[in-house]
Amino acid sequence: MNISRMALAVSLLISGCAIMGRQQVDHPIDAEKVARIHKGMSRDQVTEVLGAPQEIIFSNKEHDPLREHAYVYQHTRSKYTGIVFGFINFGNVDEKKDRVLVFFDEEGNVNGLGASLYSDESSYGFPFGK
Fold this sequence. Notes:
Elements: H1 2-14, E1 16-25, H2 31-35, H3 43-50, E2 55-58, E3 68-85, E4 88-104, E5 110-117
Antiparallel strand pairs: 1-3, 2-3, 3-4, 4-5
């Protein structure tokens, strides 16, 4: 009887499983659509191409505090990997973001654009490093 209990305890401790998951926050940003944004476009034209922004940055100028200064578009992709052996757990999370900022001049036309598109580079990884 002691041997069967010990065999059960050992089998529970050495049994394990692997876990993989992913998560996306907000809609993906299409690089081809970002490339269509150029100086001189209106806010409405930007919204037609990229959709509604997740955030609007307003001007901090004293005379025009409600002027929309920039639109912010974001997308985050995370991939999770985990290994569970009884009471011992190992995990890894790789999170990458896309972020696009479209800046407007005093007349409400595109004055500049900044983009970093890295969410497609998120990957599953072994919990002990790359």
